[in-house]
Amino acid sequence: MSIETISLSGRKKEVSNKKMNFWESLYLVAIVKGLFITIRHLFTRKVTIKYPEQTRELSPVYRGQHMLMRDEEGRERCTACGLCALSCPAEAITMTAEERKPEEKHLYREEKYASVYEINMLRCIFCGLCEEACPKQAIYLTKSQVMVKSSGKREDFIFGKDKLVMPLDMAIKNTQTKAAN
Amino acid sequence: MITTLFYILSAITLATAFLTILSKNPIHSAIYLVLCFFSIAGHYLMFNAQFLAIVHIIVYSGAIMILMLFTIMLMNLNKEDEKNKSVLSRIAAVVSFCLVALVLLATFIKAEPQMSRYYASGEDYQSIKVLGQVLLNDYMVPFEFASVLLLVSMIGAVLLSKKEYING
Amino acid sequence: MDQALIIEKGIFIVAVFAITMLMAMYSTLAERKIAAWLQDRIGPNRAGKGGILQPLADGLKLFAKEEFFPNTPNKFLFVVGPAISMSMALMTSAVIPWGDRLEIFGRTVILQATDIDVALLYVFGVLSVSVYGIMIGGWASNNKFSLMSAMRASSQMISYEVAMGLSIIALLMMTGTLSLREIAAQQHGMDWNVFYQPVGFLIFLVCSFAETNRTPFDLAECEAELIGGYHTEYSSMKMGFYLFAEYASMFISSTILVVLYFGGYNYPGMDWVEANWGVNPANIIGIAVLFAKLCFFIFFYMWVRWTVPRFRYDQLMRLGWKTLIPLAIANIIITGVVILLADNA
């Protein structure tokens, strides 16, 4: 077998430039065949996902909106060390650290916490380096499973702690399932 | 009402015919000529000659003028390119036009309408059925001559476009 | 002329005009929907329920667009181009028999705007004039690309007019009349012309694709290779008029196809319906049948659009001049021989 005729996929077709006779040059048969192929698609299942109402199932490792995690007792894990901001190639993360007061012990796990934690979603490239850098396992991109929504104003894209911190009920549920196991 | 319509149509015909000659831009002249043809078709319609009117539109406006426009547009004639014709050719054009007009006038004065027997029968002699019968019974030979003439000109056109192949 | 006739015709013409515009409007939606379905998508479904208001949204969008005038010395002709296209697309509907007759208030209303003797020639006349819309528009754009595309589109239309006319001649030899009303009436019941003139029908179908500038002959509007065609310089509603004229002429040409070859308003069993239920129900069913048939053809136009790739210009011309015209002439000769034999037998 020569190299010209070899076909790894088994679907290789030789291009033929043979002269068409009169009947073939009318393309009638070919067109009718084509029409049957297209009409079959009229009845196949549509693949469109109507986006805002239906959402596509994201893979478990999909990197979407960031989430600042809570531990089993519902305390924020972040200690405002700044490693995420340092590792961020797009310089999207800013934070302000503050010392934990004694009465806030149930809110923050570490003695230092982030009073302001902002991510500029226009700069973020969702690379996940902040997640890698975090020593406290406080920031994850794969947990929220939501995409960052579009908007018309630039200010809307600076996400503060109100949008980033894991909701409490989610933390409670996590703890409950862990306890059940 | 018909008279006013006739005057309006005639005014359009004459105006567009003059504009055809007078306008400097060849495309504009061609478009005025198309309008002129349309108004002439309107005159035919006023004689209730539907077939003639429609065929006039199809042949003159729809085919001949479009081909004319094609050539004008592709040759990209501009005002600057236009050369003034010599006096001799102008005189020749006027004389030949006058001769043609004379011949036409003579024919029309001599011609007698042949529709008296249709008037008597009350038939619609402008209808396409009667027209076809007249053309292919009474005027069979001229009709065939006209078709042979068209065929000859068609073959001539094909030959002209194939000239290189014949010589070489 | 009696006054009632004028009122009756006036109402009828307005109704036909409105229906043509409505059908053209909803053809744009149907085009997008069918394109989507044939590609396993859903299509526009946000404007109104199931996208029913999409044509209005499209029209509104076109009106809101900037009205751009190119640097042309012929502003007037630039506007006249789309106007000619649109009016020619709408003019043909005057001679189409939408149905046989209705009896309203004791009057017999003929469902046709005008029954002229040379209806079919009138259709061809309008077709040949509609080339001017493209030519003048392309020329007045003062743009070489527009001019070349206008030439291309109009020479395509002229070439296919020839084959179209020849394919019709075979039909005329059979029917012996040019009046669309008589042609429709001759195809009573199931006696449709397509059974006698299948080749003529095919040629006519192909030519009407070319005449309406639809795929696979839509060289006028392939933006990618040929720079948008003759309407490159057009924007806003002037552009919309060109596009809309295409849909209107698609509607009209499928109506003519149905009237000429698929029996128009005729359907099997129409005599029975007329005898048992009366004239009006029979004819209303007839109108519905006509619309069902022409909707199928509009669907067919769109179906072909997503099946057959665009022809190259030389292929298009070869198909027109070297295939369709000889075929049409052969069809005429065969039809003539058969009619002669049938008459003598």
UniProtKB/TrEMBL annotation, chain B:
Q: How does it sit in the membrane?
A: Multi-pass membrane protein
Entry's family note: Belongs to the complex I subunit 6 family.
Swiss-Prot/TrEMBL keywords: Cell membrane, Membrane, NAD, Quinone, Transmembrane, Transmembrane helix
Know the name of this protein? NADH-quinone oxidoreductase subunit J
Q: Per the UniProt record, which residue ranges are transmembrane? A: 6-23, 30-47, 53-75, 87-109, 139-160
GO cellular component terms listed in the entry, alphabetical order: plasma membrane
Does Ligase count among this protein's keywords?
no
Q: Write the Enzyme Commission number(s) for this entry.
A: 7.1.1.-
Q: Organism, per UniProt?
A: Flavobacterium cyanobacteriorum
Q: What class of enzyme is it?
A: translocase
The keyword Coiled coil is annotated on this UniProt entry: no
Subcellular location field:
Cell membrane
Q: Which InterPro entries match?
A: NADH_UbQ/plastoQ_OxRdtase_su6 (IPR001457), Nuo/plastoQ_OxRdtase_6_NuoJ (IPR042106)
Query: From the UniProt record, which GO molecular function terms apply?
Result: NADH dehydrogenase (ubiquinone) activity; quinone binding
Query: What does the function comment of this entry state?
Result: NDH-1 shuttles electrons from NADH, via FMN and iron-sulfur (Fe-S) centers, to quinones in the respiratory chain. Couples the redox reaction to proton translocation (for every two electrons transferred, four hydrogen ions are translocated across the cytoplasmic membrane), and thus conserves the redox energy in a proton gradient.
The catalytic activity, as recorded, is: a quinone + NADH + 5 H(+)(in) = a quinol + NAD(+) + 4 H(+)(out)
Automatic annotation (TrEMBL), chain C:
Q: Which domain of life is it from?
A: Bacteria
Reactions catalysed according to its record: a quinone + NADH + 5 H(+)(in) = a quinol + NAD(+) + 4 H(+)(out)
Gene name of the record: nuoH
Entry-linked PROSITE patterns: COMPLEX1_ND1_1, COMPLEX1_ND1_2
InterPro entries tied to this protein: NADH_UbQ_OxRdtase_su1/FPO, NADH_UbQ_OxRdtase_su1_CS
Q: Where are the transmembrane segments?
A: 6-26, 76-99, 119-141, 162-180, 192-210, 241-264, 284-304, 324-342
Asked whether the UniProt record includes Metal-binding among its keywords, one would answer: no
PANTHER family per the record?
NADH DEHYDROGENASE SUBUNIT 1, NADH-UBIQUINONE OXIDOREDUCTASE CHAIN 1
The species this protein was found in: Flavobacterium cyanobacteriorum
Chief location:
membrane
What protein name applies here? NADH-quinone oxidoreductase subunit H
Biological processes, Gene Ontology terms? aerobic respiration
Q: Where is the protein found, in the record's own terms?
A: Cell membrane; Membrane
Q: What does this protein do?
A: NDH-1 shuttles electrons from NADH, via FMN and iron-sulfur (Fe-S) centers, to quinones in the respiratory chain. The immediate electron acceptor for the enzyme in this species is believed to be ubiquinone. Couples the redox reaction to proton translocation (for every two electrons transferred, four hydrogen ions are translocated across the cytoplasmic membrane), and thus conserves the redox energy in a proton gradient. This subunit may bind ubiquinone.
Q: Name one GO cellular component term.
A: plasma membrane
Protein family according to the UniProt entry: Belongs to the complex I subunit 1 family.
In the bilayer, the protein is annotated as: Multi-pass membrane protein
GO molecular-function annotation terms? NADH dehydrogenase activity; oxidoreductase activity, acting on NAD(P)H, quinone or similar compound as acceptor; quinone binding
Question: HAMAP family in the record, alphabetically?
Answer: NDH1_NuoH
Q: Enzyme group, top EC level?
A: translocase
Task: Say if the entry is tagged with keyword Ribosomal protein.
Answer: no
Assembly, in brief, is: NDH-1 is composed of 14 different subunits. Subunits NuoA, H, J, K, L, M, N constitute the membrane sector of the complex.
